[in-house]
Amino acid sequence: xxxxxxxxxxxxxxxxxxxxxxxxxxxxxxxxxxxxxxxxxxxxxxxxxxxxxxxxxxxxxxxxxxxxxxxxxxxxxxxxxxxxxxxxxxxxxxxxxxxxxxxxxxxxxxxxxxxxxxxxxxxxxxxxxxxxxxxxxxxxxxxxxxxxxxxxxxxxxxxxxxxxxxxxxxxxxxxxxxxxxxxxxxxxxxxxxxxxxxxxxxxxxxxxxxxxxxxxxxxxxxxxxxxxxxxxxxxxxxxxxxxxxxxxxxxxxxxxxxxxxxxxxxxxxxxxxxxxx
Length: 277
Known about the structure:
Rossmann fold; 7 helices; three-stranded mixed β-sheet; nine-stranded mixed β-sheet; 26% helix; 277 residues; alpha/beta; 23% strand
């Protein structure tokens, strides 16, 4: 398998996954959100991949158009790409951010990595933040956001004293793996608390083993788990919506009021950016 890639399970069906239709509050496909691809291997071939649920969250949740950006090495100039879009969504992934990006210890044998996505996404994040382009970072995405701005990660959170195991239960159906797992406390007066009617308690799912260790300068905590794990952040000085969450709001987002509010807020920021340019 090529260096930097990881294996995806072979799809057993190409039929659409049945999802309850969701109508965004406003739809404008000219307001474009870019989603960087993962690089993985299927049936011996390297693939550029974004899971369908993230595209649905952009189109049906945020009410925006979606385009997929291939992750390449050596990385391409992200400037022209960001000139053409109004938002960035950083998705979750099976892979982990390589510790070389934050001066961490060498990864263990067998740890799923995607160094090609690392190189592309970290550059994209830095430029998007500098331009005040709306950004929503999910799971791996919040980890990339923290690393891109100079923070570090726990590679195996379940082995840190005092932390619970944030990984999904193996062998369970997806709706169990992505079901509510633990509570988080939203920062009072923060962006996410505002989306939650100023209520500070929220139940979230949990599908990760890496997590923020040293918080990057320029990030403000928006949510914490009871065990001390950072669960959400925002860009402190941003004039737009630039938020990262450790959980997976895209899973059945239409059935979760907070997830709908989250994607709607992202969509409003993306459309506002489009209207200004």
